Amino acid sequence: MGVAPWADRVEHARAVVDREGTSAVDACCFFGGGSQIILREARPLFDASVDVKAAKKVVPAACADYLATSFPSIGDLTTPGRGHVGDRGGYWTACTHLDIYGLNFASFLARHIAYGLRPRTVLEFGCGLGTTSDFLARHVPGGAHVVCLEPSTMLGEVFASKSRVHPQRPYQLAVDVFDPAAKACARDLFARKFDLVLSFEVAEHLDSDRLAPLVERLAAATGRYLVFSAARPKQGGTGHIDGSMKPREWWIDQFERQGLVYLPMLSGRLKWSAKPDREYDLGPNLIAMGAPGAVDRSDVPPEVGGGCASYGHKFCTHDGDTVAATYTREQRLEEKEQEKHRRAYQRDSQAAALWPELHAIERALKAGTLSCSSPAR
User: Fold this and answer.
1) Distant-in-sequence, close-in-space partners of 27: CB < 8 Å, separation ≥ 6
2) Does residue 178 contact residue 105 with C-beta atoms inside 8 Å?
3) Mean pLDDT for the chain?
4) Claim: this prediction has a pTM higher than 0.85
5) Comparing 119 with 86, which gets the higher pLDDT?
6) What b/e sequence results for 156-180 when a residue is b if at least 16 CB atoms lie within 10 Å of its CB, and e otherwise?
7) Residue 341 — φ and ψ, nearest 5°?
8) By the number of CB atoms within 10 A of the CB, which of 25, 165, 174, 241 ranks highest?
């Protein structure tokens, strides 16, 4: 079958924009051969078709004005006046996230949370691209109502999928819960009890005077489990604030002062599940806390897999321990290099399957055919 003429491919891409609500850039990428075609019309907003009545099950009335109902495309963040922000703290744009860290999705950890903890309600504070919230909304057995907190409206590619409706996709509250104008929303939201509260590598981006109220609010919202991580002192990264980088023991103590209980067995297993995707940050930093009565547990659901053993690594036992006695240094280095490529391939394949639009943008950013525009001055 021959390649369609240039004009036909333009019309095909335009039809996809109109019919599917995708961005012009994505339509060109998928149907027009990437840089061969550029559509100049404005990128549309994705209409999330949010069931506001259903949202009230997890979103209090005081937060109704912050419930996001339309979302920009990732392509919108590559236009002039948008792009890299947050390099000195605060929140990022999605383009910054994709450009610097990629999807950065901890697939085995997300599976462990979904199939092991099986929360019916989830609150994620600072959800980045929204991939973890989206995964839980899709895959928790029996379904879960998931609420994501992020100040800027998130991506239509994640939060406005036309193939899924709530609760098979997350809700977003586009709100800064530390803003005095959002006081009523923050009060009522954190007064609710969620089966699971999540926050991964967010606290180090907050000013230090916000850490105490953050701990208080996350603890208040925890109905069963809190799964939390924040950058340790001197941990490298973009937008980290030195005074807000604390050791995990400090966070454990702070949450215990709010009445939560440290769960060492669950913490250990979730840290193991964070490997190899997030071995650098979630591995050392992650903690699991429980509301009084929450069960500490060491089981790993069969749906999870995880750990280096999942990649066929010769030096791993089922517990992920290293076995080195019978291998030379050269053999170990060779095997580690092979494992590195296996990890990258599996992460790439999973991302492409779950979020193909984001994956395509990530690849374009890495290839240098697309860039996040500098913020307007």
Assistant:
1) 13, 14, 16, 17, 20, 39
2) no
3) 78
4) no
5) 119
6) bbbbbbeeeebbebbbbbbbbbbee
7) -70, -35
8) 25
Report residue 215 as tokens: 């701990």
Q: Using CB atoms within 10 Å of the CB of residue 270, give its burial: 0 to 12 exposed, 13 to 18 middle, 19+ buried.
A: buried
Distance CA 19, CA 163 (A): 13
Alpha-carbon span 302 to 273, nearest angstrom: 12
Tokens matching residue 82: 């948008």
Cα 39 from Cα 8, distance rounded (Å): 13
pLDDT digits (tens, 9 = 90+) for 271-283: 988 877 788 888 8
Q: How far is CA 351 from CA 69, 103, 135, 307, in A?
A: 25, 7, 11, 18
- Distance between CA 153 and CA 267 in Å, rounded? 31
Identify the top-confidence range among 12-26, 148-162, 196-210. 196-210
Residue with tokens 């909304």: 137
End-to-end Cα separation, the chain, in angstroms: 49
Dihedral angle computed from the Cα positions of residues 215, 219, 224 and 230, in that order, rounded to the nearest 10 degrees: 0
CB 299 within 8 Å of CB 115: no
- Confidence grade of residue 317 (pLDDT, cut at 50, 70, 90): very low
